[in-house]
Amino acid sequence: MTAQPTRILQIVPRLYPDVDGVGDYALQLAQQLYNCSQILSEFLVFRPNPRLQSQVDQFPVHRLENHTVQGMLEQIPANVSTIFLQYSNYPYLQGKLDAPMWLVDALKILKDRGLRIIVMFHELPTLRYKGIHCPNFVQRRVSHGLARVADVVVTNNTAFQQTLSGWTKSPVHCVPNFSTIGEAAAVKPLAERNRSLIVFGSSDRTRVYRNNINTLNNICKILNIDTLYDVGRPVDWDFQGLNMNVVKTGFLPAAEISALMADSLAGVFDYRRFPRNLAKSTVYAAYCSHGLLPVCTGRELAPQDDIVANHHYLVASTLQAFAKPSSLQAIATNAHVHYQKRTLANCTAQFAALIDPVASVRTMNTEVYTEFDISHRLQAPYPPAPSS
Q1: Domain extents for the chain?
Q2: Which of the following CATH numbers is that of domain 6-178+344-378: 3.20.20.100, 3.20.20.60, 3.40.50.2300, 3.40.50.2000?
Q3: Beta-sheet strand order (sheet of 6-12)
Q4: How many Cα neighbours within 13 Å face the side chain of 92?
Q5: What is the mean pLDDT of residues 381-385?
Q6: What is the dotted CATH code of the domain comprising 190-340?
Q7: How far apart are alpha carbons 371 and 380 in whole angstroms?
Q8: Which pick of 44, 209, 253, 271 has the fewest CB atoms within 10 Å?
Q9: 8: Cα within 13 Å, side-chain hemisphere
């Protein structure tokens, strides 16, 4: 006899047809939670697109049109046992000085009704102005309240974990981000790949070009790269000054991005804006999961989340010292091996245990159930939005 699935409600900023990094993350997690742990997600979308359907990939979808306590409570399905808030500050705000404490109040009421509250912090609130970073105290009040009301607090890197641990008495779990474009089933050695370089990400990948034209030219010269693939939303950049062939792919299906990465030599990222938070980057995760050589422009990042410069990624300024093929392959291999700790399957197993520890053990041991057909999802006509 097949057991009934555990039912949860995932709250997300946006969902397809919008391209949203957090929404796509949550959707892939939902597929894996159902297929591997019999945990069935419904979605409540904070900023619903007019074209949002009542189901996405067979998961029921609800629209939050009224951003109030009552408006949210009216949209909670009767049969869910857990509220799983996928929280990234800015998409949940109506303005720069907005502090939606009603969201905290609504979760308190749902907790009092016996629902389990899980909050995944994809970001922590920060003000950035002319290179200065400081806490955003208006939005921090909301994040602080969410951490206190949650039964389970999760984030994606140890720097955030340390901050959150000061906001709640509950343990704070760290689950690094997985690749949202898939994971290569087999990884080619660098010597068998095309001499191409990937620049992948959201529109803020312009940082790679704005700050690093000479660096990119040097990378391509030393690695004998003839083509740079710019992958993602078209950006306002003319690519002048680059000495290699530039292919602007625009949006690609996830499967095509994955195939391109599986055949390319290296992938570049610029993480100077978040020097302590590399584990939250789905761009870095995508490079590692496909066995590319990850190359960091800018300065070396401090060791973090067991990720070490020139061991799990190459610092561009030190490229000449590591130019031997064996050294480059060692770094790419280290990055891919390290990624195995943060695969979609491993991350999902951790979330399943947090959502329903008893059910997660039961399904691993005894349960048989019908999987969703997600093959159409893997061929979806839109790319996932990476988390920088």
Answers
A1: 6-178+344-378, 190-340
A2: 3.40.50.2000
A3: 55-56, 59-63, 39-45, 6-12, 82-87, 116-121, 152-155, 172-174
A4: 27
A5: 54
A6: 3.40.50.2000
A7: 18
A8: 253
A9: 31
End-to-end CA distance of the chain: 44
Contact 148, 166 (CB under 8 A): no
Token code pair at residue 262: 């599986």
- The crossing angle, in degrees rounded to 10, of helices 357-365 and 344-355 is 130
Please tell me the predicted confidence (pLDDT) of residue 375. Answer: 37
Nearest C-alpha neighbor of 100 from the set 84, 83, 85? 85
State phi, psi for 370 to the nearest 5 degrees: -90, 130
| Residue 63 identity | R
What residue type is 226 in one-letter code? D
**How far does Cα 54 stand from its chain's mean position?**
24
Q: Tens digits of per-residue pLDDT, 96-151?
A: 667 899 999 999 999 999 999 999 999 998 655 555 555 566 778 899 999 999 99
